[in-house]
Amino acid sequence: MHYTEYDTRLAAYAVIVDDRDRVLLALWNEGEEKRWTLPGGGVDLEEQAAAGAVREVREETGYDVELGALLGVDSYVIPVERRIADTDRPMKAVRVVYEARIVGGELTPEVDGSTDEARWIPLAEVAGLPRVSLVDVGLGLWRASR
């Protein structure tokens, strides 16, 4: 399919793991069921991916972050029947994943957004959570960078 025949969404996310082996996740509320995801989201038109990641982490968690390494870029296709938007076009989701560390702010839930809660989750407990695939992708990239 030619690129003019589908939608593309650029998003940027952060993998934030503290010194207690916990990862910061946000509870995404826009699917059929709430699932955990990495903090981050859509990059605005005039915004660089890195700036979008910093802004989105702040909105969803209350934390200010400093980005570290670019861990990777992942993409996948969402078919028309799985789109949240009312459209007849599939979408290619392009996700830029950074490592980040907290430099300020305090844990605060997003209000009236795509997430309801942010929480530090022990890495050992992530496999048992209802989560989007991005969590596994991001943690896999993070582990590979160690």
How are the SSEs ordered, and which strands pair?
Blueprint: E1 7-15, E2 22-28, E3 35-37, E4 40-42, H1 49-61, E5 63-78, E6 91-105, E7 115-122, H2 133-145
Parallel strand pairs: 1-6
Antiparallel strand pairs: 1-4, 2-3, 2-7, 5-6
Q: Would you kindly provide a brief summary of this structure?
A:
The chain is α+β, with helices and mostly antiparallel strands.
Explain this structure to me?
With 146 residues, the chain is α+β, with helices and mostly antiparallel strands. It has two helices and seven strands.
Largest sheet: 4 strands, mixed
| Architecture per CATH nomenclature, i.e. the level-2 architecture | Alpha-Beta Complex
* Percent helix: 10-25%
Spatial sequence of strands, sheet with the most strands: 4-1-6-5
Strands, count:
7
Under CATH at level 1, the class stands as: Alpha Beta
Attribute tags:
single chain; alpha+beta; Nucleoside Triphosphate Pyrophosphohydrolase; 4-stranded mixed sheet
